[in-house]
Amino acid sequence: MHIRCKILVCILSVLCVPMARATIMLEQDIAALTQSSTHILKAKVISSKARLSKDRMRIMTDTKLHVLEVWKGHVKGPITAMQPGGITGEIAQKVHGAARFDLNEEVVVFLEARGNRFTVTGMAQGAFHLRFSQKHKKTYALQRFDDGTQLVDPIAHKPITSQSVTLTFEQLKLQVLKALDVPVSPAVPSPPTKPEATSP
User: Fold this and answer.
1) What is the Cα–Cα distance from 174 to 155, expressed in whole angstroms?
2) CATH architecture of 20-179
3) What is the spatial distance between Cα 71 and Cα 81, in angstroms, rounded to a whole number?
4) What pTM does this model have?
5) pLDDT digits (tens, 9 = 90+) for 23-33
6) Quick check: 145 and 164 in contact, CB under 8 A?
7) How does 78-111 read in b/e, with b if 16+ C-beta sit within 10 Å?
8) 3-state secondary structure of 75
9) β-strand partners of 49
């Protein structure tokens, strides 16, 4: 009887623990994301569709991406990136920290191959959303986190206050190429085009 009471107390203790409302993960900088990924692409979002997992216990969202540039790995044609969470029918599941994509937007994604699909490296950390600034005449690459995401410094193991990273598209690409140890030459302006000679 005494043993049964102890077991019951343990069970009640577990049931009374409040569910975590945030996703806590180690921060990965561009170099870490580059090394952890099998593929790095600039792509355009074609479609997104949620589905139940094979065990019907989770919801996954498949995002189809049209490949514009390949910075790491080899891939042909549209690819599918899957992320946890989504809405299918009347069932919804939200996973804090997961990457979310908008239809027709352009992104730079850090991916890990999983069979015929891919997962986003570091969840939302591995998705940079490209936005063109009319004011600065530049394209910026920015990470996007929800309120339930908390990054932790991988060395100090302390929460990071400023989480999202914003770079110009050129800065992001340069950092990736450096992490891949690809020689990068400074941009050289093209010589002016000579006018074609005309017959007298």
Assistant:
1) 25
2) Beta Barrel (2.40)
3) 16
4) 0.79
5) 898 999 999 99
6) yes
7) ebbbbbbbbeeeeeebebbbbbbbeeeebbbbbb
8) coil
9) 62
